[in-house]
Amino acid sequence: MFRDARILIVDDDQTNLEMLEAALRGAGVQTELADSGQQAIERAGVREYDAVISDIKMTPVTGMDVLNTYRQTSLDTPVVLLTAFGSVDTAIQAMKQGAFDYITKPVNLDELVLVAQRAVDHCRLVRKHRRFQNVFDERPCAASI
User: Fold this and answer.
1) Surface-to-core class of residue 84, CB atoms within 10 Å of its CB (0-12 exposed, 13-18 middle, 19+ buried)
2) Residues facing residue 105 across a β-bridge
3) Any residues with CB less than 8 A from the CB of 38 and at least 6 apart, and which?
4) Do 112 and 123 contact (CB within 8 A), yes or no?
5) How many angstroms separate the CA atoms of 84 and 72, rounded?
6) pLDDT of 8-35, one tens digit each?
7) Cα–Cα distances in angstroms (integers) from residue 109 to residues 27, 46, 60, 75, 113, in the given order
8) DSSP readout, 40-75?
9) How far, in Å, CA of 36 to CA of 63, rounded?
10) Are 31 and 24 in contact (CB under 8 A)?
11) pTM of this prediction?
12) Using an 8 Å Cβ cutoff, are 82 and 107 in contact?
């Protein structure tokens, strides 16, 4: 199930971007890359992703900006943030604002794949629930006797 997932990876550091892509592609995931927060925001609402993985520290558009945009335009898309050890407080604040999870740098690639799997599973459960809810809501009510 994870192998047909589509994940957007966002980082302004090309080396990190390629490393993250290689790890997720190695797990069979379809990846798309954005080398800036602005690029990621431009894709919000245009493309559907099973998860977004974004660095927090980017300029001028930060990972927090990416998170806030996806929380507004694609509420069911989980956003995982990458943070340096010294900015764990920022990551905790991001969790309070709706981030799915955070991973500290340097990134443990096994952890990355596991967190991405959980995010994709969560996304798919939310979407499935919404589909069932829509079907249920469209069913006619039984006439009361």
Assistant:
1) middle
2) 84
3) 60, 61
4) no
5) 26
6) 999 999 999 999 999 999 999 999 999 9
7) 11, 28, 27, 26, 6
8) HHHHBTTB--SEEEEES--SSS-HHHHHHHHHHH-T
9) 9
10) yes
11) 0.87
12) yes
DSSP-assigned beta bridge partners for residue 47: 44
| H helical segments located in 5-138 | 14-26, 37-43, 63-73, 88-96, 109-138
Distance CA 58, CA 40 (A): 12
- The amino acid present at 109, given as its one-letter code, is L
Query: DSSP state, 100?
Result: S
Q: What is the pLDDT of residues 37-76, one digit of tens each?
A: 999 999 998 999 999 999 999 999 999 999 999 999 988 9
Strand 30-34 to strand 6-10: parallel, antiparallel, or no bridges (unpaired)? parallel
Q: What amino acid occupies position 48?
A: E
Residue 96 phi/psi, 5° resolution? -65, -25
CA–CA dist 7, 56 (Å, integer): 17
Distance in angstroms (rounded) separating the CA atoms of residues 64 and 8: 15
